[in-house]
Amino acid sequence: MKKNLVKLVTVGLGIIGVMPCFAEDQNDPETEYLPNMLVEGQILKPGTVGILPNQGGINDAAALLKRVPGANVNSNGPLSGIAQYRGLFGDRVNVTADGANYKSACANAMDAPLSHVPTSLTEVLKIQRGIASVSSGIETLGGTIEQQTRRGDFAEDDNILFQGKFNSGYNSVNQGRYYSLFANVANQNHKFRVGGSHEKGNSYEWNGGHNIDTRHDRNAATVGYGFRNDNHEFDAGYNYNDTNLTGTPSLPMDIIYSRGGVPSLSYKGFFADKYEVTGKLQFQDIQHRMDNFTLRGVGEKPRQSDNTARGFGYKFTVAFPMLDGTLMLGADGDNIEHDAIITNPFDARFRVRNFDDVTRDRYGFFAEWKGDLAEDWELELGTRLNWIRMGAGSVFATTSKFNLAGNSMNAPAKLQAAFNTADRRQEDVNFDIVAIVRHSLLPTLDVEVGFGRKTRSPSYQERYIWLPLSATGGLADGRNYIGDINLKPEVSYQAELGFDWQKDDFYFAPRLFYRYVEDYIQGVPTTNKAALAIDANTLQFSNIDAYLFGVDAEAGYHFWDDWKLSGIISYVHGRRADSPDYLYRMAPLNGRVELTYDTTQWLASAEVVAYAEQDDVSSFNDEVPTSGYAILSLRGQYRPQWQNLKGMEIGFGIENVFDNSYRVHLSGLNRNPLNDGTATGEHLPGPGRNFYATLSYDW
Ligand SMILES: [Cu+2]
Fold it and tell me: How many A from CA of 273 to the centre of ligand 1?
């Protein structure tokens, strides 16, 4: 069942790549036997079948997802990328960093989970294509994306290992640049690591104007210590993020700062030669401020919002051999508290407490067996029970300062009273099942059939927004929402059919999926009179029914020793099942084709990324259609082979060679009236022509 590793690596300054991979070692319970997409945070040198250079100065880990079939990014700003997988996004997709869920402090997910650790401090970003294992996270309805931060290695022999990496890059389109340095010193039992990165850029240009409000400024740091002996491994780490003034033009405010740290402890040990035990514990304490005037000019209603997310999470597992496979039992959970207040820094009388002592606590228990049924037949069976408890404190708004007309004067007070007198505690008991069968039809062809029942309890915004606001976890549709405390959890039924066809110089891996989501949560026009008095277009989060289906595939062909042609394609179609409408913010049909010439020293590639028009849009969200487009990018890389310069890489290229102007469907709707060439409510454009240069050194 062991397969040749087919690697398709992308290199640039961010030195990132995509690698479909089959597990090499089935005895390691950490290793999936299902095909994974790997987005490498570093160059894969020997053994790589092909290397493609990547985008220049992009240091945003979420941007890597555009290279994974089925995946994409709902981008609300240069550092605010929300992961999308097969049409589902936000809290539906489980994003973990070193096994822990980062919870956005911002009620609009400006500090989305993948923004906490930048690409340059990321070791690897993984997605399990298809149905995520129950062990991969607590709520995995839309799949699991796993970011592993850079942690360095232990020494393999008696010598002291000193390893490190320097990265830097420059982009002309926004004068963006970044630098990062990571170092690890280790012997066979101990390792110490430290790293930091700084990145900064201006708003980007495009052929049609200046997309103001897209500047960014972020510092990140990491420090850690690891210990191991024959049977035990321990690690303590700390990742810190300090994001400064950064635009989010499709949201009502911009990031003033997001800062805070995530300390973590992890342990792995073997007992009695067959029990593998793991434990993880992490904390987070994140502060965030945003406002609507620093980057946009003071309008009539200056607003500032301060948000926090504090809490902890844990995961404990024990795995041992059973039948012809491994059984893993586990318990995981997290307890997070959110607070948010909206003020007017020029008028202390205006205060809106939009979230107070909001808690969302999860307690999960799971069992998962993976193993061989018979020769050439593999099975994964998993089940999970989640207990979700939510609550919220009482709220207020200083209604006299609301600039409301006539009879709407009392509307905020009515909503406040209704919320404060309601029973706001909610408990859900959710139940997940996964079954995946994989069969080798031929030595070169595997087929996989999977079924999943997955659940997700409502987010705290979906249950507890009490006043019409756009604090919606980053929906960026320009609409105001109210929540519904009594929302039911979503229940998804998913079927999957996948093929993996691999020969020495060729691979093709298409996947088809169908998913029905009972009680899918989305905004529909509200009947709440007080909310309608404040905003006649208010939507209320509601349970509807929905279905999504689609196909995604990757393929590659290696020829003439140094040449490779590769590509991915992604298609998803999402509809309401209970009324004729489409789902909001579905990625249009899109694909990427790359032709690469790669030798030890030189690499050159031409890449075309194409998006079809998207007119299957959600009418309830007044979603605006977008046109199709195609963009050509040319990339090069030079890797000196002289002794002292080995490990150095110089990258350069031109992205969007023809300076096409285009609207990005997943980038949300412009909220900033000052943007050149983009009206309020129109989709934001993608960057214009970009010359980039990168330099990295690995030792
Ligand atoms: Cu925010």
Answer: 49
Cβ-based neighbours of 76, under 8 Å, separated by 6 or more: 82, 108, 109, 110, 248, 249, 250, 251, 474, 476, 667, 668
**Of 131, 6, 140, the residue nearest 511 (C-alpha):** 131
Residue 18 alpha carbon to ligand 1 centre in Å: 31
Residue 39 CA to ligand 1 center (angstroms) comes to 28
Helix (H, G, I), strand (E, B) or coil at 215: coil
Q: Closest Cα to residue 59, out of 114, 97, 7?
A: 114
3-class DSSP string for 515-539: EEEEEEEEEEECCCHHHHHHCCCCE
By three-state DSSP, how is residue 536 classified?
Answer: coil
* Residue 62 contacts residue 114 (beta carbons within 8 Å): yes
pLDDT of 9 reads: 30
Distance CA 271, CA 276 (A): 7
Q: Give strand ranges (E) for 583-689.
A: 590-598, 602-611, 629-638, 648-655
- At 185 the pLDDT is 97
- Identify the pLDDT of residue 83: 93
| Cα 341 to averaged position of ligand 1 atoms, centre (Å) | 11
The type of residue at 260 is G
- For ligand 1, the distance from its centroid to the CA atom of residue 114, given in whole angstroms, is 15
Whole-number Å distance, alpha carbon 671 to ligand 1 midpoint, is: 14
Q: How far is the CA of 97 from the centre of ligand 1 (A)?
A: 21
Please give the model's pTM, rounded to 2 decimal places: 0.90
Residues with CB under 5 Å of ion ligand 1 are: 106, 108, 110, 290
pLDDT digits (tens, 9 = 90+) for 631-642: 999 989 899 998
Torsion of CA 18, 60, 671, 360, to 10 degrees: 90
List, in order, residues 6 or more apart from 353 with CB less than 8 Å away.
340, 341, 395, 396, 397
State in Å: Cα 417 to ligand 1 middle: 26
Phi-psi region of 475 (alpha: psi -120 to 50; beta: other; left: phi over 0): alpha
Q: Please tell me the predicted confidence (pLDDT) of residue 25.
A: 34
Three-class secondary structure assignment of 59-119: CCHHHHHHHCCCEEEEECCCCCEEEEECCEEHHHCEEEECCEECCCCCCCCCCCHHHCCCH
Cα angle, residue 670 at apex, residues 665 and 675 outer, rounded to 5°: 120
Radius of gyration of the chain (CA): 25
Q: For the chain, which residues score pLDDT lower than 70?
A: 1-59, 298, 399-409
CA nearest neighbour of 393 among 414, 422, 413, 415:
422
CB distance 127 to 71 below 8 Å: yes
Centre of ligand 1 to C-alpha 445, Å, is 47
Q: Dihedral of CA 137/436/123/115: which sign? A: negative
